[in-house]
Amino acid sequence: MFHTTVLILVSFFITALAQSQTASAPLRVGIVGLVHGHVHGFLDQSRHSQEIEIVGIAEPDRKLLDAAGARYAFDRAILFTDLEDMLAKTHPQAALVYTNTFDHRRVVEICARHGVHVMMEKPLAVSFDDALAMEKAAHAGNIHVLVNYETSWYRSNHAAFDLVHAGALGDIRKVVVHDGHRGPKEIGVEPEFLSWLTDPKLNGAGALFDFGCYGADLMTWLMNGERPLTVTAVTQQIKPQVYSRVDDEATIILTYPKAQAIVQASWNWPFDRKDMEVYGETGYAVTVKRDDIRVRQSGEEREQQIAAKPVPTPYDSELSYFRAVILDGTKEDALSSLETNVTVTEILDAARRAAETGKTITLPASR
Questions:
Q1: What confidence tens digit (pLDDT) does each residue in 236-252 have?
Q2: From CA 333, how far away is CA 336, in angstroms rounded?
Q3: Would you say 276 and 288 are in contact if contact means Cβ atoms under 8 Å apart?
Q4: pLDDT, tens digit, for every residue of 212-229?
Q5: Which pLDDT band holds residue 38 (cuts at 50, 70, 90)?
Q6: Going edge to edge, which strands form the sheet with 79-80?
């Protein structure tokens, strides 16, 4: 009896230890691409995070690769100019993608063949065709494909969503989303970043795709994945001497059976901004930067500004979320999901055509 009890206790502790180690294990990631400026903020802040282990870096530009190796003291053994080579030799569980947007499709298709999950910087793709191809590859490879937006982690956006879905504002009637800054050149982005941001092939457009994606993502989220009926868009080149090949100003209008969204995307604003106004039948909510929200409901004489409550872990940060989805089986958040972002790309693709033709685009009833 004594020996049986000992064996049971030993087995229990071994199992508990294994579960503890699994729960705290970092996600093995490969960094794909070094031409997206956000990669440096990520590496500065997160390369030593306990939630990830960077096992490989793939960047075809040897100069950029060597510079990053020196800047962040990476072992040269994990630096590769070829993605396939990096995946085959370092065996990451997931990839964090910092390429131009045009290359997202190629990266997803390669990673899917290797069974490697993907999180990329927004937006998902430069075209609806590419988005559908990525969706097909992800399903075939049984991988997660997630899209990282800065605004996914804003308490204020989640507070607005919660008010809508608690019925506190009534049914949505109009949403206005503002995203932009003075322009990528004006804020001093890296040369390799500026080069593709201003290339219509590699970026899909200018401000239309760079910042229009935020509003399309938020509206699709607020509408529980519903696709709009129509897409109308106007773009301008207010600074053609700076942005000769792409738009620097864009407005997208989306219509739904009983709601409308106005997405304002700009490389011309005097200050950075990422905020949203949500108007319902009985009230409104206006987000104030990351953490506050202004609310007024039916029967109230004035609005109130309140601090939004914290977003529950792991939905409050990029790395916690990515690791939890891949290693713990945590449910994907709709903001970053492939399904939502295929719709976002469908909207952006239609907006580009609407701006080019001057006509409103009616989306098919289903896809």
A1: 999 999 999 999 999 99
A2: 6
A3: no
A4: 999 999 999 999 999 999
A5: very high
A6: 79-80, 52-58, 27-32, 94-97, 117-121, 145-148
Residues in the chain: 367
Partners of 235 in the beta sheet? 250
Q: Distance (Å, rounded) from C-alpha 53 to C-alpha 153? A: 22
Whether the pLDDT of residue 346 is over 60: the answer is yes
**Residue 167: both structure tokens together:** 């019925």
At 288, give phi and psi (nearest 5°): -125, 100
DSSP-assigned letters across all residues of 123-174: -S-SSHHHHHHHHHHHHHHT--EEEE-GGGG-HHHHHHHHHHHTTSS-SEEE
Show contacts of 81-85: CB within 8 Å, 24+ apart. 82/58, 83/32, 83/58, 83/107, 83/110, 84/110, 85/58
Q: Which residues contact 278 (CB under 8 A, 6 or more apart)?
A: 160, 163, 164, 169, 172, 175, 222, 284, 285, 286
Q: What is the mean pLDDT of the chain?
A: 94
Q: Is 28 helix (H, G, I), strand (E, B) or coil?
A: strand
Of 218, 217, 190, 208, nearest in space to 266 by CA: 208
Our CA dihedral for 322, 327, 331, 334, rounded to 10 degrees, sits at 20
User: For 341-349, what is the mean pLDDT?
Assistant: 98
Closest CA to 112 of 129, 130, 136, 79: 136
pLDDT at 23 over 90: no
* Dihedral over Cα of 316, 322, 328, 330: its sign: positive
The mean per-residue pLDDT over the stretch 246-267 comes to 98
- Whether the CB-CB separation of 101 and 202 falls below 8 Å is answered with yes
- Point out which residues pair with 266 in neighbouring strands: 180, 249
Q: How far apart are CA 22 and CA 7, in angstroms?
A: 22
- Is-above-0.85 flag for pTM? yes
